[in-house]
Amino acid sequence: MRAAFIPFPTLLAGFVAVLVGYASSAAIIWQAAAAAGANAQQISGWMTALGLAMGISTLALTLWRKVPILTAWSTPGAALLVAGLQGSTLNDAVGIFIFANALIVICGLTGWFARLMKLIPHSLAAAMLAGILLRFGLQAFATLQGQLLLCGSMLVSWLLFKALAPRYAVVGALVAGIIVALLKGDVVTQTSTLGFVAPQFIAPHFSLTQLISVGIPFFLVTMASQNAPGLATLQASGYRVPVSPLIVISGAFGLLLAPFGVYSVCIAAITAAICQSPDAHPDPQKRWLAAAAAGVFYLLAGVFGSSITALMAALPVVWIQMLAGLALLGTLSGSLFQALTSAHERDAAMVTFLVTASGITLAGVGSAFWGLVIGGASFALLSRQARA
């Protein structure tokens, strides 16, 4: 893969995907590590290990299948760990990581998860993806209320480029936002430092009580809220990939690297959607280049893991929110179109979309899973009525 043959918008899609991934969950990961008693140096090591793990696994899967497959850590899982690891030790946390990732590998080896994914109608998968992405679109335009100059300039730039040079629309928004943020003095660069912090090996400790109370819910949340949406996103984008090998490989990465703070390696959904969109590359068969670029950016982020929090602090949050929303707009509209194309599946798709977009959490499991469950039940019931 040579950068000279990768269009700039494709490289940008990979960069934005990694930026969104870190911006949306880096703080949660730090809270989860701190809950287990990690100090600043150890947390920086976790961020290093996570970046390297995502970079290696993304490149391995993408180059293997020539499909835009991104991996990610489980943000819902990290949120669960913030509460679940209170009072635990780092050794207990690593034991939980190993246990949960071992269960993920078993799911892939047995093939039951692949069979489940084949049962999901394409319209429901697209509706679920649209429901996941809706909050990013709403969040982007909500920034106009408090940051009209910064975010308004990004929106105007995006619209102008969309009309004149569509492939560079996100580029235009990014540059316009940076220029305005610099002129306003919103970029705080003095807190940003570069450095490498090597991950530390932490021996696992297995507590049956914690494996049951934290490990099993963490496994279920990771599968339901991260792997299922990630695989559905690939399906909704028109990519057919073998489900079981992806689950096995991603779970194996998490299993092997758990002692270094890699609590999960999952199939990405939201960040992957950026690299799977037409903005990444007009040819669907070449969008894997954007994912490969994201893998390289993940590796760079891992090398400078200690600087992630400082870099996130240097960028205005609203700039990241607007950029993410604009980058995902094409995927959101395409998913809605696919979800609502078939008249006899439209009601079930809308149920899936609304439940997913609601953000509800039931029994510790996120709305993406329940969107598929409730939408799938609606699909089965309405299809039976249509046949009758």
From TrEMBL:
Transmembrane segments: 44-63, 70-87, 93-112, 119-138, 144-161, 168-185, 205-225, 246-270, 290-315, 322-340, 360-382
Annotated Gene Ontology cellular component terms: plasma membrane
Domain of life: Bacteria
GO molecular function: benzoate transmembrane transporter activity
Keyword set, alphabetical order: Membrane, Transmembrane, Transmembrane helix
Database matches in PANTHER family: INNER MEMBRANE PROTEIN YDCO (PTHR30199:SF0), MFS FAMILY TRANSPORTER, PREDICTED SUBSTRATE BENZOATE (PTHR30199)
Protein name listed in UniProt: Benzoate/H(+) symporter BenE family transporter
Originating organism: Kluyvera genomosp. 3
Name of the gene: benE
